[in-house]
Structure formats: structure tokens, C-alpha cells
Design goal:
Purple Acid Phosphatase, chain A, domain 2; alpha/beta; 303 residues; two-stranded parallel sheet; seven-stranded mixed β-sheet
Length: 303
């Protein structure tokens, strides 16, 4: 699969040169350090191939997936609370959310940081390189979160990466059970610039799980109105489901939401429930005309 993928990049060359390569999570299988070392070897092969094809020297960005964390023991009371947080009554859940959002030394934050410790050890050099190339690079509240502003040919592009997987601490089905806190987004904003994303020429949001995996209440009360209102992000990139899907959704007269799910790049094909994974990747080009209020997104899906 690695050989076929690296060879296939030549077919997708018309979409280049590439400024950014994005991994939407699940780089490893179970979040172990030796697995991330294998990832590092793959990325080096990928960088070499991109260079051979003359497709630029792209910035590498990633967000963590549910396979990139080390799961706590099943009896860990903090992990049990995290896994059930969206089902708890507000009187019980709200103090937990407050500790996650405001208290780095709380048991919840310490547990979350331990779960992603090996991911962060892998991510740190890439984060350092991103900050060297783009001083606007900003760390977030939770492991692996970031925001960066990239200027190109007079246009300003923003990229936001959020951790949506920190509640998925065991092997259960978490569809409709995850959540994000508004402070995960707010902590990424430049000082005294709450409208940062809305003033860019285009912004991209990256999460591992698609919005449908958030709880209905969280999606309706937090994610949609406070983090990703219509018009803020030109494109939302995610993965997790191992399928290729491009969704354009609008309601009433509002601007549309564009969500693109990526296929699994390299993974086992059959799953325990009989799903046959289709492997692939996608390339995107965002084109801005400063003389027009509109932009163009072009997509190259590869199988």
C-alpha cells in the first residue's frame, strides 16, 4: 500500500505544488511510541517523494484520533466520567467541563495529557517546525490543538485543529456521545482578536471525528453557533469513518457548511463488523480572487 500510494502521488501532481499536508488523526493503532516511530519513517518517505515530484516542501499538520491515545484502565474513575460526560446531568457535568477548560492541574486534564503523551512526543518536533515557519502558530487547550495563519500571494489563510477525541477513552461506540468546549476554540484566538477567523480570506477546520459524532446538544449549543457557525470555515476536514464523503449543507438562506471526510490512507481492509475499507486520500486547492467576494475550492479524490 505504501508503494502504491507513493507512486500514485504523481497522478495527483496537477493539484500541486502543495503548501500543507494534513493528517486528520489515527496515525497510529494504539498510541504507542514505537508506532509513532513507524509513522515518522513513512512521513520521511512521503517528504522525499513530494520533493522528487517537484510538489514543494509542504508544512505537515495533524490532529489526534481515537487510535492515537493510550486508553486508561477500564476502572479509572476519571476515565469513566469522561466517557459518560455528555450523558450526565448538567449539575454533574458542568463542574467537570469547568475543570477541563480552566484547571490544567485537575485530575481530568492530567488524565487527558497522559493519554496523549506519546502522541505529543511525536507531534512536538512537527509543532516546532510549524512555529519556525509560521510564527503565528498557536498551541491550544488540549493535546494536539493548534491554530496558524498562512499568508500567500496577498491572501491570509487560517487553519484550526481541534481535539474531538479526548472523551473516546474506550472501545465503545461514541457516535453522538462526544463534545467540544468553546474554550478549545477561544484559546486558539490571537490576543484581543476574537474575530480572527472571520477576517481571513479562508479558514479551514480540522477534527478527527465528523460533526455527527458530537452529541446533539453539544452540536446545537456549542459547535455550530460558537465554534463553527456558517461562513467561518470554508472547509471542515475530518476522518475517522474510513470513507470518502463531501457534504455541502445549507439551511434557509444561510451560508453552507462544507465537510470533507477522508478515506483511510493505510490500514487493515476488513473490520470486525464486515466493513471493507477503501483506501485513499484527497487533495484540495483553495483559490481566492481578491477582487471578488467569492472563492473556489477544487478537490481531487484519489482511490
Amino acid at each position: 500500500m505504501r508503494r502504491d500510494f507513493l507512486k500514485d502521488l504523481e497522478r495527483c501532481g496537477e493539484s500541486g505544488p502543495w503548501d500543507i499536508v494534513i493528517f486528520s488523526g489515527d496515525l497510529s493503532f494504539s498510541g504507542k511510541r514505537d508506532q509513532f516511530q513507524q509513522v515518522e519513517g513513512f512521513i520521511q518517505d512521503l517528504r522525499d517523494r513530494i520533493g522528487q515530484l517537484g510538489l514543494g516542501d509542504p508544512l505537515f499538520l495533524a490532529v489526534p484520533g481515537n487510535h492515537d491515545l493510550r486508553r486508561p484502565v477500564a476502572t479509572n474513575p476519571v476515565a469513566i466520567t469522561l466517557s459518560n460526560l455528555t450523558a450526565l446531568a448538567p449539575a454533574t457535568a458542568d463542574p467537570v467541563w469547568t475543570e477541563i477548560a480552566t484547571k490544567p492541574a485537575s485530575s481530568y486534564r492530567r488524565t487527558i495529557n497522559r493519554m496523549f503523551a506519546d502522541y505529543l512526543a511525536w507531534w512536538d518536533p512537527w509543532k516546532t517546525e510549524a512555529r519556525r515557519r509560521y510564527p503565528s502558530f498557536q498551541d491550544g487547550l488540549l493535546p494536539g490543538e493548534f491554530a496558524v495563519t498562512i499568508e500567500k500571494r496577498g491572501c491570509r489563510f487560517g487553519i484550526v485543529g481541534l481535539n474531538t477525541t479526548y472523551l473516546q477513552v474506550n472501545g465503545d461506540n461514541f457516535s453522538g456521545r462526544l463534545a467540544v468546549h468553546v474554550q478549545q476554540y477561544n484559546r486558539l484566538l490571537p490576543p484581543n482578536d476574537a474575530d480572527w477567523a472571520d477576517k481571513l480570506d479562508a479558514a479551514i477546520l480540522i477534527t478527527h471525528q465528523p460533526p455527527e459524532w458530537l452529541s446533539p446538544a453539544n452540536r446545537m449549543n456549542v459547535f455550530n453557533p460558537l465554534i463553527a457557525p456558517t461562513g467561518r470555515f470554508a472547509l471542515h476536514l475530518c476522518g475517522h469513518l474510513h470513507i470518502a464523503s463531501a457534504q455541502v449543507q445549507g439551511r434557509g438562506g444561510s451560508e453552507v457548511r462544507r465537510v470533507a471526510l477522508g478515506r483511510s490512507l493505510l490500514a487493515l481492509e476488513p473490520t470486525l463488523d464486515g466493513l471493507e475499507r477503501l483506501h485513499g486520500y484527497e487533495a484540495f486547492r483553495i483559490k481566492i480572487d481578491k477582487g471578488s467576494p467569492d472563492g473556489l475550492i477544487r478537490m481531487w479524490p484519489r482511490s
